[in-house]
Amino acid sequence: MRAAVVVFPGSNCDRDMAVAFERAGADVTLVWHKDDHLPEHTDIVGVPGGFSFGDYLRCGAIAAKSPISRSIIAHAGRGGYVLGVCNGFQMLTETGLLPGALMRNANLKFICKTVDLVVETADSAFTRGYAKGQRLTIPVAHHDGNYQVDDVTLAQLRAEDRIAFTYADNPNGSIADIAGVLSANRRVLGMMPHPERAVDPAHGGTDGVAMFRSLVEGMVAA
Amino acid sequence: MKVRVDVMLKTGVLDPQGEAVRHALGAMGFAGVEGVRQGKVIELDLATDDAAAAEAEATEMADKLLANTVIESFVVKVLG
Which residues from B are below 8 Å from A173, CB to CB? Predict the structure, then answer.
């Protein structure tokens, strides 16, 4: 399974995400944002956390217009997999690959702590290593993680079982406690918490391992 | 041609920063501040001398990048 992890100026979780994919058995290539194409046979694109372009204008807005982003949109359009974490989630909403927007945290503070998530669906390549209703302990670190969508879109996300994770105790004001959402074809996941920061006992937890493992194993089998 | 783009959160979208400013104003003794909405002003200096072209170009820029139309609305004004 081949994973490409994108690097923007200001990305700071790119190597962590690459390590998480590698340990799960993927071949990983880091791709610079100025590259206008992904490596051949890329199965999944990882869009990492960080502060791409200094969060100028809006978080993820400039990254969403980078040359590599056109290739990511095309990859998703072909049915390719994309995982966006934190700033990567913000960037995916800015491209329109995922609905909604991430606004300033309701308490206006940067939140850096470990939180409990609830797995809302096991029906995706990202979450099939978990059970619906399972609780995960995963770190968050963000200033703009307050996920908002309009009521019509929220109803659609619910009806289509596209809410991947919710917060057990909402830290940031996100509507319906949403921590991560899936695209309509269930192949694009955006989430604010950092599964790649929970893949080694030294991280303080390993609840993120199952996501990377199920992605790699699922695609090798496919 | 100078063009100004005002970007504001859409009505109904919660504005936690505006709310924090409102609280601070109240704490400073400014009574009767019933609402604060915080937005952005972006000034563009465009090469064209045609006001209509400048407005059309700035509108496309706002739609594609300067505003996130999921949560924000914008107003384009040609300053001349």
Answer: 14, 16
CB A178, CB A147: distance < 8 Å: yes
Q: B70, A108: Cβ pair inside 8 Å?
A: no
Q: What residue ranges define each of the domains in chain A, with the CATH number in brackets? A: 2-221 (3.40.50.880)
Separate counts of helices (H) and strands (E) for chain B: 2, 3
ipTM above 0.90, yes or no: no
Range of the domain at B40: 2-78
pLDDT (average), residues B50-64: 98
Q: Report d(CA A50, CA A196) in Å as an integer.
A: 13
Predicted local distance difference test score (pLDDT) of residue B14: 84
Distance of alpha carbon A62 from alpha carbon A53, whole angstroms: 7
Beta strands in A2-110 (DSSP E): 2-7, 27-32, 44-47, 81-85, 101-103
Under an 8 Å CB criterion, which residues of A touch B?
57-58, 61, 65, 93-94, 99-101, 103-108, 146, 148, 173
User: For residue A139, what pLDDT band results from cuts at 50, 70 and 90?
Assistant: very high
Residue B16, pLDDT score: 86
The token duo for A214 is 């199920």
CATH number, residue B28: 3.30.1280.10
In the residue annotation, A112 being an active-site residue is answered as no
Q: For residues A25 and A31, what is the distance between their CA atoms, to the nearest angstrom?
A: 18
User: Which one of the listed residues A75, A86, A120, A142 is annotated catalytic?
Assistant: A86
B59 CA: distance to closest CA in chain A (Å): 16
Strands A188-191 and A81-85: parallel
Nearest CA in chain B to A66: B65
pLDDT > 90? residue A142? yes
Contact A174, A127 (CB under 8 A): no
Count of structural domains, chain B = 1
Q: Virtual CA dihedral for B14, B16, B22, B25, nearest 10 degrees?
A: -170
